[in-house]
Amino acid sequence: MEYRPELTQQQILCCSCGTTIPPNPTNMCINCIRNQVDITEGIPKHATICFCRNCERYLQPPMLWVSCQLESRELLALCLKKLKGLNKVRLVDAGFIWTEPHSKRIKLKLTIQKEVFASTILQQIFEVEFVVSHQQCDDCAKVMAQNTWKAMVQVRQKVDHKRTFLYLEQLIIKHSAHKDTINIKECKDGIDFYYSSRSHALKMVEFLTAVTPLRSKTSEQLISTDIHSGTSNYKFSYSVELVPLCKDDLICLPSKIAKSLGNISPLVICYRVGNSVHVMDVNTLNVAEISTMTYWRTPFQALASVKQMVEYYVLDVEPCGPVRGKYVLADIQVARSQDVGRNDTTFFARSHLGGILNPGDTVMGYDIASSNFNNDAFDALHRGSLPDVILIKKAYPAHRKRNKGRNWELRQLQKEQEEMAPRKQDQERIEHDFEMFLRDLEEDPELRATINLYKSNKTPKENDHAMAEDGSDYDEEEDFPEVQLDELLDNLNLDDGPDVDDEDMMTD
After folding, report:
1. Which of 122-131, 358-367, 452-461 has the weakest average pLDDT?
2. 277, 291, 329 from 296: Cα distances, Å
């Protein structure tokens, strides 16, 4: 009979509690290892998960909302991503522990392993509880929010002043084109109008098309879709770009457009902007109309704007004969106001202002001789045929120096300002543009006839007193176009207290 010795496993005592255990590198039993080392340290046992009750989706940070069923693999993966520290251990098993659906709790049972000592791997099972927090997703917020806009009209013009928008604002107020807006926001290059209906936005676009040359683009964004009824909810945006040309701008037409307009001279001025751009050749009084389609087919920029005009002193006026309405062609001798009394530099200019200028008047114009324009159409012109000065409009410096208070005022739209307050220099520029617009209204009866002016409630006593004291220093121009009282509308303000309806009308 063959002898087979019985092999017995060697046993050692635990170095901590003295329990007999098989040999291992730590010389410690499992209970003592677990008491000294916690491999779940750094893994949170409680967490929060966001759930949208409207669309039944869960938030996957930072901004992604995903649809998951209860106890699904997608929800399990979403919960595991919320736990920090799992990348430092080995995940062996993960599963759900059943909870009541209405308890707003999700429990996971995790099994992890980690090497705690040399050649010693510890496995541990623990539970993690998630609290379901209700949060509305962005898409549901857009659908459920009250007074949210459904259509927006963005009006923009790429110029360095606000004169066009100031005039456009007065036209909107006069025709009550803003009555359906739910919000008006002013931005750097224009104004945004918000509407609760697409049809209201289309009315605004049609109104703008009727009063100013522009081009528009339409875009839409899908907000929600009902798969049962096949209906969808969209937001519409209308981008409206106005032509970058304004009244009194100096324009150099491209040769192709100049030939199509009856072979008019390329160097013209803009004397009116309606639903098209009206230009005039000051040397011949020839006029032309640039339609919206013609401009956007070959767009061009203004050669100079009103901010670049120079003040001149009129020395002599000699009419030449041709007359077109209020414009009379004349040869006018002028000198820069800053050169009067310093040198004898004078200029001869042929202008359309022969009917309103007299020797001794002040006129604003463009100094072509000493200006440098970066324009290809202007560079193609023959320099010998260009005038030294192009006169634009008569100025009234004596009236401005007397600082006479205005007996009229304008209404303004209730606009939401930008989040960031404008800088000091930007605020000064805005105030300067508004003052220039008021002066244009005073000096141009035809321009102010298209808008509404209102009687001012302010008493100009201080200004009248200052005017009386300084009246001997300046001689006011006799032909200054004062705003007459019959041109003003009542402000509908009562002395015994404001009326609710009147306040609403003023706000509108």
Report:
1. 452-461
2. 12, 9, 32
